[in-house]
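> example.struct
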């Protein structure tokens, strides 16, 4: 039979891990969930949620959306690479948003 966990357990585990107060295995033991469940919860909490024309990252205090543009609109984009991620920029890009995204991708700020 499948075990049911509460939202409170999930929130507590994610808070412990993302704040750095406990390692994943220790947080799972403390909250009373299996290690595999804890891994799945943490991975899902970090995955961006795509909703129509916006991209939102749960729990992020930074940028809340990115503008989607058809390839036929505008000219050749400028391609920026940060680690394994590539970002194509148009002429009217938001510099503050780009800085926040680059900081997040390079690990300078947490999502």
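> example.seq
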């Amino acid at each position: 039979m499948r075990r049911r966990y509460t939202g409170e357990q999930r929130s507590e585990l994610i808070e412990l891990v993302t704040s750095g107060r406990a390692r994943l295995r220790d947080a799972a033991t403390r909250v009373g969930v299996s290690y595999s469940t804890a891994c799945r919860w943490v991975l899902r909490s970090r995955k961006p949620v795509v909703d129509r024309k916006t991209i939102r990252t749960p729990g992020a205090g930074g940028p809340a959306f990115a503008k989607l543009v058809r390839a036929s609109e505008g000219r050749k984009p400028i391609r920026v690479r940060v680690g394994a991620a590539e970002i194509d920029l148009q002429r009217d890009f938001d510099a503050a948003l780009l800085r926040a995204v680059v900081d997040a991708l390079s690990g300078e700020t947490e999502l």
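> remarks
The radius of gyration is 18 Å.
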